[in-house]
Amino acid sequence: MKILVCISKTPDTTAKISFTQNNTKFNGDGVQWIINPYDEWYALVRAIELKEKDPSTIIHLATVGPADTDPIIRKALAIGGDEAIRVNADSADSYYVAAQLAEVARQGGYDLILTGKETIDYNGSSIGGMLAELLDLPYISLAVKFELSGTTATVTREIEGGEETDEVRLPAVVSCQKGVAEQRIPNMKGIMSARTKPLKVVEPAAVDTLTSIVSFELPPAKAGVKLVPADNPAELIRLLHEEAKVF
Amino acid sequence: MSVLIFIDHSDGHVKKASFEALCYGAALARQLGTTAEGILLGTVSSDLSALGHYGVTKIHQAALEALNHLDAQVYARIIADATTATGATVLVFSNNVNGKAVASRVSARLKAGLVSGAVALPDTANGFVVRKNVFSGKAFANVSLNTQIKVIALNPNSYPVREGEGSAEVVPLSVTVTPRVKVVSTTQASGQVPLTEAEIVVSGGRGLKGPENWGMIEELAKVLGAATACSRPVADAHWRPHNEHVGQTGIAIAPNLYIAIGISGAIQHLAGVNRSKVIVVVNKDPEAPFFKAADYGIVGDAFEVVPKMTEAVKKLKGMG
User: Fold this and answer.
1) Which member of A126, A234, A240 has the closest CB to residue B114?
2) Which long-range contacts does A26-29 make (Cβ < 8 Å, 24+ apart)?
3) Is this complex's ipTM strictly greater than 0.90?
């Protein structure tokens, strides 16, 4: 079993969001960067669990980003995985990233490709689907449970107001979210061994971008909370009905 | 150069998010001076021609039972083929569970620019620029789609549904399908509004002290016709089921009204609810960070405040 886990670098959840260059670029000054939580906590950890069950499993990590992505991919290797591949390019848009990852996947011949359900910066939720299409593979999105039996995966996915359990023959692409695995903290052994694990840097394939970001905007500041005295909840209901008109 | 709208359904019913997508797509077609058509894969119990009320002139339907469950690969192929056959230049999906899976595949298949999480109609004055949520609701990006065919996945609850007149012609699509994903089972909470489709959500946190105290949350939700939700610690402690967990690791929602009771408002929680149009916070701690993100609030004991809110709603609605 050979698994590819796609890793993205994102600003920390608590990072202050601001923009530079006339609101066309994210302002990374003073921002702490992390592994996209869905990639780390769910996709990567589930792959590690599968390797713990079957030690012959090989896990590769792939990311698209310039050299400053290396600390993130090393951190991912400290949690687990055998080697990493970094495509040396800026992640220009989701299609560009998916096409680069598809190239990595074609070279590696993987049985299973895992991604997080979305990145917490662009919230596109589109890499897994694009990757599956480019590789002509089945895609199961928003998995909350993933089990493997031979070459058949049983995946429970979120649907509106419930869950659906699917069976699919590998190879396949699965996007992961909470429920698939539990977050792990890298231990000292992992951190030490990550330093010597291979991190292969490959140059990007020639791929077009399909979209571009014209500008960013911050939402208008909230007017501030209107407080209603605790002894008069009926006034709150009146305001919601007559002023906010939400019911 | 028409607009083609993907109509998602389950249990024989068109989803609310798809009515939004239909209205959005129809408005976009008017803006572009063209027509809007729908595409539905599978079967529903209602009369599809009535979807004309939402502004579409045609519904392309592949009426196969096998299509009632999503296989994103199969769906993407049929929709991409229909796009080519109808000459559509804009594809509209809801950015809901199925929409996300299919829109991304169709985008890659047609090499058509995708914007997922759109919150407004495109600006077509100079190019084709669509506004979307980024950074988990903390900012917007204006994204230019630079390809001839464009794919838009519209965030649920960000475009109003308006029903008008009209009838749609139902055109059968002849397709052959060989799904590679086999559906083994589905579980669906019955009789409840799915969280992502709810216009009002009442949510409880650790301040409620235990699962035995959820009765008053459910009461308030019931009189408001709302869905219930919870914070992460509550789901992790198994006070409430995981599918009620809203926040960054749970479900992201954008209802018209979000009422947070006994939730302090950690940044991870806010990331899942900050797109709500109106936020109400009830918390006995005046320093709770949630008040900074709220529109209305009560600093007080939930156990006293919430039953009174329920009473006030009942009175207002004449529910005695």
Assistant:
1) A126
2) A26/A121, A26/A216
3) yes
